[in-house]
């Protein structure tokens, strides 16, 4: 999982003063699966960084693990772009108005 997630120091909220977990890859490149995110305290983070750097055999135990279910990326929206729909609707309105104007002018 360390290839997909990375730990950042939280600088957003000084009161919280903890860590955030963020995705390393783009959302569209993340395959559908259930991912386990291990949570560590301050000493656990330091031990994990040493474990990751030195590639030691035994990883430190997390204080808690969270499973994140990612169903995959789905394409949302219509199969054609909305700009095309607006253009066609505008042309139909213009054609209809022009037809009515031509009938009135006769």
Describe the structure.
The chain is of the alpha+beta class and 106 residues long. The protein is 35% helix and 23% strand. It is built from two helices and four strands. Strands 1-2 form a two-stranded antiparallel ribbon. Strands 3-4 form a two-stranded antiparallel ribbon. It is rod-shaped. The model has no long low-confidence stretch (mean pLDDT 78).
Describe, in short, the structure shown.
By secondary structure, the protein is an alpha+beta fold.
SSE layout:
Blueprint lengths: L4 E5 L9 E5 L9 E7 L2 H13 L9 E7 L11 H24 L1
Antiparallel strand pairs: 1-2, 3-4
Give the biggest sheet.
Answer: 2 strands, antiparallel
Percentage of residues in DSSP E strands: 15-25%
Q: Which H/E pattern describes the elements?
A: EEEHEH
Helix content: 25-40%
Number of strands: 4
- How many separate helices? 2
Give me the secondary-structure category: alpha+beta
Low-pLDDT stretches are: none
Distance between the termini: 74 Å
Task: Provide the gyration radius in Å.
Answer: 27 Å
Shape: rod-shaped
Main-sheet strand order equals: 1-2
- Average pLDDT, all residues: 78
